[in-house]
Amino acid sequence: MITESYIAFFKALKQHNNKEWFHANKKTYEKEVKQPFLALLETLIPMLQQLEPTIAATPKEALFRINRDLRFSADKTPYHTLLKAGFAPGGKKSALPGYYLGISAEKVHVGGGLFQLKGPALKQVRTQITHEPDALNNIVDAPLFVNTFGKLKGELSKRLDQHFQPTLKITPYIAHKQFYAMQEVPLKDYIHSDRLVPLITDAFKAIHPLNQYLKKAFE
């Protein structure tokens, strides 16, 4: 269960984001942050597998490292100030659409979709949209999706290939370079609360139709 100690650790990490402080407080991280988060994933995975049976992750496999990749970042702070996990067929770094959870000191971030698409994969998704543009509109305009996430997120292309232009008149979403949705809620409302698991699983259920639609592009 996520507690005040989880919040306190990440608040302190924001102020002392360096290797010396982290290693001095690693036991606290393991006990008060990592272990409760993994326990939460242990509860979530069987529920998620009812939606997506092809996901075969353990909590440790779903967990992203707290260490930041600094190779291409101007920000050289070594640690993320949240724990996050990803679930998708083929693993958290799969090119297939998946589900995401992140918990910082302030917020629960939960959603899914496709976050990073390289050229050929993006073309596959856009081709799928040309085949079923109305189906995508129906998914992202559905009350459950809108009430949970607001709208479909993702960067937009400044230019669109000519053969995709006619579909743009039916759905603006074909211009997206990413196709994801995210709900953000204050963590303080879910400390020591059994309501955290239903919050997350309800968001996974809301993103499921979008993931099933996007997955068709890779079949």
3D structure, described in words:
The protein is α+β, with helices and mostly antiparallel strands and 219 residues long. Helices cover 46% and strands 13% of the residues. The protein has 9 helices and 4 strands, in the order ααααβββααααβα. It has a 4-stranded antiparallel sheet with strand order 1-2-3-4. Strand 2 and strand 3 form a beta hairpin. It starts with a helix and ends with a helix. The mean pLDDT is 95.
Would you identify the regions where 5 or more consecutive residues have pLDDT less than 50? none
Structural class: alpha+beta
The residue-averaged pLDDT reads 95
User: What does the overall shape look like?
Assistant: globular
Query: What is the oligomer described by this structure?
Result: single chain
Secondary structure: number of strands:
4
What is the helix content? 40-55%
Strand content: 5-15%
Span of the ends, CA to CA = 38 Å
Protein traits:
single chain, 219 residues, alpha+beta, four-stranded antiparallel sheet, 46% helix, globular
How are the SSEs placed, and which strands pair?
Layout: H1 4-15, H2 19-24, H3 26-51, H4 59-62, E1 82-87, E2 98-104, E3 107-114, H5 119-131, H6 133-140, H7 143-149, H8 165-168, E4 179-186, H9 196-215
Antiparallel strand pairs: 1-2, 2-3, 3-4
Summarize the structure.
46% of the residues lie in helices and 13% in strands. It is built from nine helices and four strands, in the order H-H-H-H-E-E-E-H-H-H-H-E-H. The longest helix has 26 residues, at 26-51.
